[in-house]
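Support case: user asked for a sample of complex input and structure output to validate their parser. Sending the pair below.
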Amino acid sequence: MTFLVRDVIDVAELLDAVGGHGKGGTVMFFGTVRAGPEDGPVVAIEYSAYDEMAERECARIVGEALDRWPETTVALKNRMGRVPVGEASVGIAVAAPHRSEAFDACRYIIDEVKKRVPIWKREFLSDGGERWLENKETASEY
Amino acid sequence: MRCLFFARYAELLDTESLEIVLPSDATVADAIGRVRASVPGADQLPEQPMVARNQEHVRIDTSLSDGDELAFLPPLAGG
């Protein structure tokens, strides 16, 4: 699986990737670029990554989720480049025999992605301003 | 060894990579100190930035080997 994509995250493709007859529950999460409210309207966010490490770290996180919830199937995509307000920058799908594993695994994956995957974003504002952003979850133990 | 810089750090240093030479018993902290002391703009890096050795997160007391790749990672913002 390639975890970094350059185009719009395809919802149907994510869903198809995790489906199966033994799956009774599917959870999807999308992180979308929002316009604010702080510091004026945002028009877009540009995402960049340490591509090779980001791919490996995503694979590790997915592997950990599958170890912890072995009956799940998982799909994860992070969009790179300029993403306009309202479009998804990250998409996750998790299917499981029962909903609780799907919710738990999906939550684990997005939390670990935010803490560990080397992705950065620069926000573009409507007044022409730009700034680098950071996650409050960014890992502190290293 | 090769040092890599990304996002805001690449802007601060005006480069995405450079080579440094360290003693054989050097740690990640030594590499950070060398970069901060010798590269223009690098004194604006944190004293303990997040770092990855060969594409894995490591602590700053981790030992380095010749040929390692050390990435300086600004605060993450994925998701």
